[in-house]
């Protein structure tokens, strides 16, 4: 058995010494925190059964997830397998074939299914040695940890086209896993383009494959207001058409589907800017019909509407975080969209209150925060609020970085929590950002003390919707969102040098010399020093970006093909621009 | 009640006088052959039941289709509706609300479920007048006709966001429908890029929405050989990787899923060119390792392999048509890929047989035709075979046009059947072909006698896969493939003038004058003369291409949004290049 902890070294070997031609790949994305594997191969019974234990073992979420993953794992087997499975279920004594793995035992210790920030998502997964047991085991503290374990299990299973059975290679496996960050987000913008419920469900499903766990739903913006708000029923008059809307029931369905996948929904109501569409139903919210943003700060009515929206939304969204936006508010005096000082009644109000426009911006954001907090929400705001009046923000505020690097260090230095979304690396609509730039971005960059690092709750990739509609949103998200979700661990410089030298030998055809290098590497006298800091799910790497071509690229290409097989239209990994078509014929694994 | 037959006039009115702002759209794609509609609105019970009649009423295909369409029709209603449905099913006496339509009665006269070219796909669909009946009826001769009727029914149903019920507007409806052509195809190329089974299933599903009925599966080409052939098990060594393959069971599953949707699968084995990948497993099929195409004509072994492939495929594919390719065979003496005369043993064989390379091309194609015919298949060949040796082709040959216009007229003049796929208009990988050019292409162009017109069995849009992988194949197919599938009927010049004049009034804000024109139009003293020639599904139009912007574009945009809602990533209709992202924020219905 080949043991390394964390075991990147092994994966590098698989990728180069074995390659795609001879043996199936067993690539995990994102990499588990710790794992060992062997060199056996186990067949998996298509009639795989679930047995459960622990206080949370009887969870309906777990049962549904097992059924879902069984369909995924045995999907390619197709007709024949469905037939065998049916036959086996009807005739339990009929052993059509002998399989090594016949059941999956899942232990869930807690029956608490509340899904909140920081819920325990850890799990252990054990695949036995051939002949030792016919059972794969997953053990988790919560049902959400078991979901993560099931995803990893599904990635261990490969369809063997020769025997037409599902196999687990490199058995036995022992995996101890937990996420690096509690908040692993994807933002979806349903205002610039409306995405039908079916499409949002497809995206949720794919998020669970990448072990992302927060959908930041940027529901409303200037362009359209698609959500039903029962208290203010004219608000969704701001939708593009009557057929591009989300009912309260739709929103419930999204929240519930996410819970089934262990994914929280953080809704956003972006105020006071980015809100022009509100006025389609209630024009009084605009400073004037000709000057529509930011929302009219001078009227109590404006805050009544915000309060009404948040009251209605509180019934739908159980997650403790609520995003209040607060970005790009035009308060500069030379700004043409500067409505507050150019609209007479607002201007007068400002004078009466002895406020500048900038003061009013602060006043508005803080008042919105008060409303959110009164409804038991933790407010999240875009970084402009912090950059402009940090000391005034509610102390529980989570600051959402987007403009550039270096913001989270300032945020945590002042004791606030931070979400990392530096647009130069994690805005998915920036099509010129290649996968490796997404991959090597580091949320803890520039933050050196453990106590400050803990204030970075995670990161989020943002899918702004200006040029992404139903036809191309998923290929803009995938595979790059997964690059942020999963981070490889890389061995230190010494180990890396051994590998690189060996690789050069192999490429030159100097097989013996290459092997000698690898054997030297595997006999490494002491455990290789791995920088064990962390990233979104996996461990933080400690090497230069170039190295990811060896350690991460083959795995990400494999994950992209896995998404494709599961019906997700993830784009080629290495295209010059994201979501661009492949340049010519070729394998999914190479493009 | 507003009656017009065919009723394009009505649809034009809806599109411009009503627009998207006030009433829901009821747009059908493709347009039925004949229909009338009214001005009522009926609510549809989410617990809609199916009642059946006729010899074919108990069909499992029908039951499955009903369940599928019920999910589609009530999808947006989401959680609340599922809940109501469950409640109603458990408590049949509990009437949560009164609905106008509570059941769908489907009569299928024949229990013959054989799916072949020319199967009867006609149906009638009647939606009652409010209060007259609570039953919508579909009547068809075959179960496949009932499937087409169910699709039309689903397009009549709209979700009303105000009452949160599904409604049928413009009731009563009376629809008599049948396809114009028996063969309405989409070609998929799984050699240049491998599409996972899940993706092919998504494409099949969407084909049924557009009432396309033949998947031409271009399985194998130069680049890869993904299909399992049990008799020659090394053939799929020519796949890109071990994980980009179709097992026999996969192929069965595709055929079966298609049958459930009323879609035939026409497989293609393209010989003797486009076959380099065959030699990965059996290098003897190449003239030489350095000169690999066309397949070695001199060996009996080559034809043994073809015969073996066709024997295996016959067990999978029940459709009577089999495509033998035969395109782009390089026989010119100056052609660098001209392997037959440059490879010594083939050259010698040609001399012994007293054959030129062109003779050998004919010999090869005819021998392949013999093999296919011996297995009870009707051979289909690309047009080069006809262009080169028409008189020698098997008399049952169906010639598949692709090079350009004017081929089908020559083909039918010689008594052969023809499939229209002129690359200038119906190659979907030609991204610069806009929707209206696809839409206005006419398979019967230049064919004037009824007997010759009957020999054009239909047309096919071709999705060559060089730059289309899983990430972008569906947006390259849709919505343009639907443009070929559906053709609007257009009123004659007089009617058109009335509409255009009215429209100009409306645009200028001259509402009264515009209305007067429309009223004049609706009081048209005699039924407007419609040129009742035909296209792929719908009636052939008789006006100039410019007019489609009025009659077809809003309906196609609506159909694109319908595809999006059903989870199909159909691209914006009017983008300069197909599958290009939208240029900015906006509604699905406008982009």
TrEMBL record, chains A, B:
Its EC number is 3.2.1.52. Residues 28-156 form the Beta-hexosaminidase eukaryotic type N-terminal domain. The active site is at residue 328. It catalyses: Hydrolysis of terminal non-reducing N-acetyl-D-hexosamine residues in N-acetyl-beta-D-hexosaminides. Residues 181-487 form the Glycoside hydrolase family 20 catalytic domain. It is an enzyme of class 3 (hydrolase). PANTHER family: BETA-HEXOSAMINIDASE, BETA-HEXOSAMINIDASE 1. This is Beta-hexosaminidase.
